[in-house]
Amino acid sequence: MGDLVELRAVDQAGLLRRREVSAVELLDAHLARIDATNPDLNAIVTLTPDLARGMAEEADRRLADGGVPPLLTGLPVAHKDVHEVAGVRTTFGSPVYANYVPTRTTLIVQRMQDAGAVTVGKTNTPQHGAGSQTFNEVFGVTRNPWNRDLTPGGSSGGAAAAISAGMVALADGSDHGASLRNPAAFTNTVGFRPSPGRIPSWPTKDAWATHSVHGPIARTVEDVALFMAATAGPDDRIPISIEQDGSLFAAPLDVGWDDVRIAWTDDLGGLPIDPTVTRALQPAKAALSSIGFDVHDASPNFKGADEAFSVWRGFIYARDFADAVRKDPDAYKETIHWNVEYGLSLDPVTIGRALELRTRLRNRILRFLDEYRFLVLPTSAVPPFPITTEYPTEIDGVAMDDYTSWFATCSHISATELPAISIPGGFTEDGLPVGLQIVGRHHADLDVLRAAFAFQQATKYWRRRPDL
Description:
- 37% of the residues lie in helices and 14% in strands.
- It is α/β, with parallel strands linked by helices.
- The mean pLDDT is 97.
């Protein structure tokens, strides 16, 4: 049964459909893995075995009835603890919500459950998803399965650690600056930031918001495609919804790439990168050429990306947390205070300038991608760092301005609103995972998955597993 949890989600789904394993048996295998590994890793912070068993039994009834079951029927999943699940404790990693039990369910979770997924629990996250290191006052710190003294990243760090350790087949997360991609890079998993509106974010205070998106973490690209097929699609409440059904992602991933021009950059035009990461990714560049890609050293001009990202992030935090922080300042960590204070300092002229900078950036990137099909770069500028370090304060001798600066390889991409994926890209000399990021054209989400799949098949880095 232990071997079941090591299988890809698509393989588990195949076993279920052929009735070679029951959903209850598959659940039991994953609960056993959780019992064995979660006490050390602290990835799943609220376990829901009774809820999961009821869902698994219902999945077995569906499978026994014949016909075509929903795509995720019987697959064990976990939900990020900033995503509400009706009737299940949802803390947002905050002591303010330590005992909060919502009556509503976040749309991405609802679509997973409607597709037959089996909810086993909630995954750890920093307070309100602020930070790319997963710890909070409610549940403590999450550890990386590859080295328990290191972080799995954040803010979807609990999800990535759970996937990497085989606790669940699929997990949802969210990504504003790097929160799906950095954890994937640190745990040898796949984290996909879809185009805004591909999986509509609901509930939300801003139906037009494009910075933060919901998406999957999984072990392989084909698992991500399965997740997207089950959860993507428009919602009338979100006007930026993309009017394409999730079935788009059921299309074949294996396509040819001969002579397709792509841009490779080691540092996104001059960002500080740890040499350990640069060395680890050199074989990846050769692998892309072996696939057939026409690889060129090139980078767009990311002038203004820092300001565009920081201003809008500050605006969002001021909107969402200013009143709460004033009311109970001791309940919120320093990085939330910093974001709120920065956001409250902004004036309309500064906000307007940030919007203009983002527009110019977007247009430059689109022109660049007219020449190149993809932009390929490191996911993270550093390898996984100690759990005692909240964030890197310097990279390769360069001091970081604030707690967001170190993940600029991702946040610069977030500012463009283009689809991006982090896939297993190699390993450092001491065996730690390093992620490779692939950025695609406007709404070319399937295209990004196909390119990532080609790299995955050429390298098979995903097959390397942590020593549990």
